[in-house]
Structures are given as C-alpha cells and as structure tokens.
## 1
Amino acid sequence: MVSADTDVHVLYGTQTNNAKAVAEEIGREALRRSLSPQVMSLDEFQITSLPVTPIVVFVVATTGDGEPPQTMLNAWKFLLRKDLPANSLSKVKFTVFGLGDSSYELFNAMAKKMTQRMLDLGAKLFHKVGLGDHQHDFGHEGELDPWLT
C-alpha cells in the first residue's frame, strides 16, 4: 500500500514509446490518488539513487530476444553488477508493468527479469506484476486497466 503525499517514481524502458505512454498514464493515475509522481526513462534517472528511492513503478517493454529497450540499457547494466549487495535495495518498494507480445517465446521477459533482479537485491514487491499483451483484444490496456484499479 502506498500512502498519499508520497513520491512515486515511474521509470520506463521503451523502444517505440509505448512504455513511455503507459508510464505517463500511471503518473496521471498517481496524481488522481494524491501521490507525487515523477515519470522518466530509466536512463534519465540517477540509478545510483535507487537504494534511497522508496517507491518505484517500472514500466518496461521487451525487445528482440528478451532484451532491454534502448532507454534502459545503462540502468540495466548497472543493476546487473555482481558487486551489488543482496540487501542494497531493502528500503525500496516496487512493482512492474511489462509490455510484451505473447506470440513471442520470451513474452514480457524484461518485466520478469526486472522483477527478479529487484527481489534479488532485497526490494519488496508492493503490487502484483502486470504483464500487458499486444495480442489481447484491447492491447496492453486489457491488463493495464485492471492492474491500475
């Protein structure tokens, strides 16, 4: 649960700007709920400040063969560093919404990888992971709308 008057970082990784549009929609919903959202790409965010960022919503697309999109390459490389302590993100609460296409074998791979890496670094999941599917009759909105509720 996230309380009012809380800073929420909505960080996205996108190749075609779909994840950016979803992140902006999540930001608008956060405002409606009296939260203070900051929406930006993962590579615009100072990733070294993640351990002191209490609430984060990641919106990540999957590209190619389960690879990270362009706007999160540097942040993802940092998060994969082997020298990061297992409890380095213990003060962070997070959730993930992924954009993928279930016709691909590695459906929403980056959302799944991001979730696992955050958990590996000690972060706590505060809301179930959402996996948007381009194949849904309503596109990713088919999962996003109930996920936001």
## 2
Amino acid sequence: MVPGFLAGAVASEMRYRNRTDLALIAAEPGTEVVAAGVFTRNRFAAAPVELCKERLKAQGIRAILANAGIANACTGEEGLKRAGEMTRIAAEALGIARGAVLVASTGVIGMQVAVEPVRRVMPDLVASLRPDGWEDAARAIMTTDTVPKMTVVSGVEIGGKRVTVGGIAKGSGMIAPNMATLLAFVCTDAAIEWEVLENWVRRCADESFNRITVDGDTSTNDTLLVLANGRAGNTLISDIESPGSIAFGEALKAVLLDLARRLVVDGEGATKLIEIDVTGAPDEGSAKAVAFTVANSPLVKTAFFGEDANWGRIVCAAGRAGVDFDPARVSLYFDNVCVFRNGGPLGGSDVEEAAAAVFRQKEISVRLDLGAGQCGYTAYTCDFSYDYVKINGSYRS
C-alpha cells in the first residue's frame, strides 16, 4: 500500500481463538523513518501509550507491533515491563534496536498481555511481512469491529514526485474525541522533517478522529501513529507553510477523515452515519459544544435508529449545551429538509414525510443554524441500536 513499508499478521491465541490477533508494520531496510503520534487524554493511559510517548522523543522508529484482545491498561509496572518485552522480541526478530519498535494494544482493560505467545509466533509474524499485507494487519487489530478499515491516497505530487499516504485503523466502541478503544497506523513515503510531520498529525487528528463519537467514552488506549520514510524522493518538506507541506497535510487529512468515518459507520451496533453540522455560532468552541452535545445524546441517537424524525430531541440537546444563543433565531435541517425555522416547527404532512424519508437513509446530514454568528463545527456520530447494549453487556465473555 505504501512503498517502503511492509505489513503482516498472525494468530497468537493470546486471548482469541481461530483468528489473527497480532499485527506488525515495518520499514524496509535502508530507509530512514521519522514518526509522530497523538494519544488518548484519558488519565488511565495504557502501558503501550506511555511507552510510545517516550520512544517517539528519541525517534529512530522502524516498526509498530499491535495486539488485539488485551488492552494492557491499568496494569501497573508489570504492564510496562510486558509492553517493553513485546518490543524486545520484535526488535530481535527484525534485527533492529529495541527502542525502534512501538507497541499498541486494544481489548479488555485490566488484563496483562501474555508475552510467551508473542515470542512463540514472532518468527512467523516477521515471515508474514509483505508489501500487500495491510488488510491482514487491519483484520488482526479488530476487536468488536465487523470489518477491517484501511484507506490510501496515492499520486499526490510534492516536489515533482508522487507521494502516497495510507493506513489502517480499528475502533467500534468506546470512541469519543480526546486523543487526539481506537488505533490508527498511517505510513507515507514522503520526505518530511519531524517538526512538520508532527504539526500535521496533530492538526489532522483534530479535523478527523477528534470529530467523531460513537458512545461518548474515551478509551485508555487511543493511539494514532504516523511514519514517514522519504522513499518518494520528493524535496524535503521542511517549511510548514510551503505548497508541498500543504499538499501533504491535505492528503493526510483525507486519509484520517476517511478512516474516522469508517470507524463511525462500524460503530458497535450502528446502522447509520450521521453528520452533525452546526453553523451560525458565535465561535468555534460554541459550535463544537453544541455539535457534540447533540451527537452524544442517547435520545437523539435512538431516534435515528428508530427512524423517527424527532427534531425536538435535537433542539433540546442544543439548548443544554451551555452556549448562549437566541432560540428564536435557530433553524434545523435534515439534509435539505427544513423542519424548524426561527424557533418554531414547520408543520404539514409534506415536511413530515420528507423528514421521515431522510431518516430512512444510511447516511444523514443534520444542519443546525444557531443564528448567532459566523462560526461552525462538524461532528460525526452514529445511531444507538439494540446491538450496542448486547455487545457491551457481554464484552468480557
């Protein structure tokens, strides 16, 4: 998928049976890699998150090892030791420095990762590495996901060369912005300085993963890692404001936003993708507050699942967001159907029927104009179905 990077996966049976659960992404020998990451803001950050933060300071990264099933979160010093041991095993097998391997985990909180299965299958995992092994890696990091998530943008011209940006992600529940249980690994063959890469990783995370919510819960393990190997041979991107930098930022944002939307579409038990677009706010912070209050409302989300165009739940949620606006100036649209204007409903069977038709769609756009300014914000969410409760009621079973 991305020149100069290999991916692969195997079944370690650390927790799952009869499926792959251990993924590896590695830079081909002879390439120099710069890496940047964004992580959860949960105070109970998992051991792999803490390890990655430290190793990114030193750079020299060559590979990412990830397991599914056990999160290695809230596991104390022993969890940190085991995360480090996982990287040592991978580093020895790859013939690289221990500090060159990053690690990520996802799954049940409070369980220690088992190191012995990692040691046992590592030769096979390294042997599985290949340029087209990305889908295998994407499947291996799944927990309650129903489909693997991967995307690529290629052919972006930077400095006279064609650049590729591509990656994989997992996440279905326990997803809310504050990281940037979600993991995303993105690689690019662009030649780019660390400071510029780090800038774009943070900015693009804010415009993608930090705009989604499935259930309002922020994981202990949220990790976004981006690796660049310079294989494309473009003129080194060293100026954040340069045309090449801007082009790279747009490509990275496109990849992250596509992955983010895929996460929401595959939200636990989800049947619909909903875009909440708040406009006419006095400032972006106010627009964001309203957007996420609506996006996280269980009453709003269940109405979408039931295909009930209940506009009252949406304006009610907006009204409790703690934002100052005049209700008499608010308007609400479902796609292009206006159901509420200047503080009052637009009645009639035609409006009801048109709104109901929108709610039967798999993708729905909601636009809420506060009439209080010129700023806006867009968030992405999904509906709540019966299956969300079923999945999370027996997650550890």
